[in-house]
Amino acid sequence: MTFSTGPFSLGTLSTAVFLTATVLLPATAHAAVEEGTLNVTATVIAQCTVTTSAVAFGEISPTQAASATGSISISCDADNTLSSVVLDGGSNESAGTRQMSDGTNYIPYTLAVSGSSVAVDGDISSSFTLTGGGPYADSADIDGAIASVGSARVLGSYSDDITVTVTYSAP
């Protein structure tokens, strides 16, 4: 018994489906493989870090003297040798005098390593004991002083930024 579905017989239809399926099957793919190299590198460096706490005078009288203490802390990893710790004159320095500013007016001040009456002017590395085979850390208190004045200072908020530069050498 033959089934007929119009112009195609069941035998013809099977052949047509088989041919269509064969044409739609993907061709066999040939895989290719390429390889490369990913380099992973690192360089371990000697390192020292510097942290500071502010010399914050707080609210001061328009004419009286004021003092405050901040600190500089230095920590180094193994075998670094400290060469220098230098404080610059600040962002408002004028003729060698450190000054805080409110943008227009200035209040002169001094900094000294705690326990010393000599104003900090340059290298203070002798205040730190960072030598030999670290790791190690040390800190120094920094005293700030504002002198009293005869005429009143202009009211306002004053500040200055001191850059602390630490120079060290690695083995």
UniProtKB/TrEMBL annotation:
<dbReference type="Pfam" id="PF05229">
    <property type="entry name" value="SCPU"/>
</dbReference>
<protein>
    <recommendedName>
        <fullName>Spore coat protein U/FanG domain-containing protein</fullName>
    </recommendedName>
</protein>
<keyword id="KW-0732">Signal</keyword>
<dbReference type="InterPro" id="IPR053167">
    <property type="entry name" value="Spore_coat_component"/>
</dbReference>
<feature type="domain" description="Spore coat protein U/FanG">
    <location>
        <begin position="36"/>
        <end position="165"/>
    </location>
</feature>
<feature type="signal peptide">
    <location>
        <begin position="1"/>
        <end position="31"/>
    </location>
</feature>
<dbReference type="InterPro" id="IPR007893">
    <property type="entry name" value="Spore_coat_U/FanG"/>
</dbReference>
